[in-house]
């Protein structure tokens, strides 16, 4: 079943030579109508009328009545285009008919399935998948950048999103290839950026500044007799109070016996400083600054006497402790 809107009009015999603009607008309108939901086709025909006038017939076909009604009530449709050319038409010759056409069962099934299933299932799933890729990719990229770089990139990404949104809102008839192109480029950029950021982050976890390894291999734990040790589990420090001597460099061994990533960050006299997140080689930070499950690291301190807080930057609300320097 198809739903057909037919618009008929007659161009006066004396104005037939001026009808080219009308037919040009109708042909251009075909591309716009084709982007509307439920569109099945459009045909423009012209025949000579016995009185010498030119009979114009514009037929648009739709998959269901709602689609046809939406088209009929649109700001621009075949009828409104023809009505703009009243100066070349025979007065009162415009007629609009709407009817159902049998024989369109097979042609209708695919668009009908798309309207019901694609919009209700494929579009939400596609948006969800893109959102997950965007969140994962951007988070990996931001974490791999220094604070200033992450802020600048966040602004650039926001401007790009706003620009694209403005473009597509201002151009609702934008061709489908532009939508697909933006989606493909976005997913590719996020995927590549997230992968590169992951590699950089992995390298930082295993190397301190200068490229020398600082973390023991997985499952290897420190064995220094009498060493001060901080053991981390999910999500707590086994030692929430520590005491070390002041006025000398002290190395504390750090073991991650949990499944999550942890670290140890000791506040200096002025607090945790900066953005509050450990970077490779920063004072008061464990090496590496991200210690994976089963791995170990160290933290080297040389602090004046006093009391200092320490924490895991990944679980700052749960993993905290107090360090006393005597």
Domains counted in the coordinates: how many?
3
The CATH class of the largest domain: Alpha Beta
Any low-confidence stretches, pLDDT <50, length ≥5?
Answer: 104-112, 207-223
Shape descriptor reads rod-shaped
For the termini, the CA-CA separation is 89 Å
Instruction: Write down the CATH topology of the largest domain.
Output: Alpha-Beta Plaits
Tally of contiguous helical segments: 6
- Strand-residue proportion: 15-25%
Number of strands: 12
Order of helices and strands: EHEEHHEHHHEEEEEEEE
Helix content: 25-40%
Major beta-sheet overview: 4 strands, antiparallel
C-alpha-based Rg, rounded = 35 Å
Strand order of the largest sheet: 2-3-1-4
Question: pLDDT average, as an integer?
Answer: 82
Would you kindly provide a written description of the structure presented here, covering whatever features stand out?
With 326 residues, the protein is α+β, with helices and mostly antiparallel strands. The protein folds into 3 domains: 2-103, Alpha-Beta Plaits (2-Layer Sandwich); 107-206, no CATH class; 229-325, Cupredoxins -  blue copper proteins (Immunoglobulin-like, Sandwich), CATH 2.60.40.420. The protein is 38% helix and 23% strand. It has 6 helices and 12 strands. The protein has helices at 20-33, 65-72, 78-83, 105-144, 147-170, 176-206; strands spanning 2-11, 39-48, 54-62, 95-101, 229-233, 236-237, 241-244, 250-256, 265-266, 296-301, 306-311, 320-325. A 4-stranded antiparallel β-sheet has the order 2-3-1-4. Strands 6-5-8-10 form a 4-stranded mixed β-sheet, with no helix packed on it. A 4-stranded mixed β-sheet has the order 7-12-11-9, with no helix packed on it. The longest helix has 40 residues, at 105-144.
């Amino acid at each position: 079943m198809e739903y057909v809107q037919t618009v008929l009009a007659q161009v006066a015999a004396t104005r037939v030579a001026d009808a080219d603009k009308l037919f040009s607008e109708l042909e251009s309108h075909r591309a716009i109508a084709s982007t509307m939901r439920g569109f099945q086709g459009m045909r423009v025909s012209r025949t000579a009328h016995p009185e010498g006038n030119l009979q114009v017939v514009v037929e648009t076909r739709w998959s269901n009545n709602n689609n046809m009604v939406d088209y009929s009530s649109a700001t621009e449709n075949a009828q409104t285009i023809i009505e703009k050319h009243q100066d070349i038409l025979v007065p009162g010759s415009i007629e609009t008919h709407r009817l159902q056409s049998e024989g369109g069962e097979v042609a209708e099934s695919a668009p009908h399935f798309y309207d019901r299933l694609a919009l209700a299932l494929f579009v939400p799933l596609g948006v969800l998948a893109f959102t997950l890729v965007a969140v994962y990719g951007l988070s990996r990229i931001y974490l791999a950048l220094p604070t200033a770089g992450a802020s600048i990139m966040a602004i650039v990404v926001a401007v790009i999103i706003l620009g694209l949104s403005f473009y597509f809102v201002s151009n609702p008839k934008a061709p489908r290839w532009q939508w697909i192109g933006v989606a493909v480029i976005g997913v590719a950029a996020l995927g590549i950026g997230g992968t590169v950021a992951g590699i950089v982050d992995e390298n930082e976890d295993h190397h301190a500044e200068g490229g020398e390894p600082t973390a023991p291999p997985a499952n290897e734990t420190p064995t220094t007799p009498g060493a001060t040790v901080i053991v981390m589990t999910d999500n707590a420090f086994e030692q929430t109070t520590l005491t070390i001597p002041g006025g000398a460099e002290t190395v504390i061994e750090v073991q991650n016996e949990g499944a999550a990533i942890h670290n140890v960050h000791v506040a200096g006299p002025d607090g945790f400083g900066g953005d509050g997140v450990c970077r490779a080689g920063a004072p008061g930070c464990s090496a590496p600054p991200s210690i994976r499950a089963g791995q170990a690291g160290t933290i080297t301190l040389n602090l004046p006497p006093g009391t200092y807080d320490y924490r895991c930057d990944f679980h700052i609300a749960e993993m905290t402790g107090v360090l006393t320097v005597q």
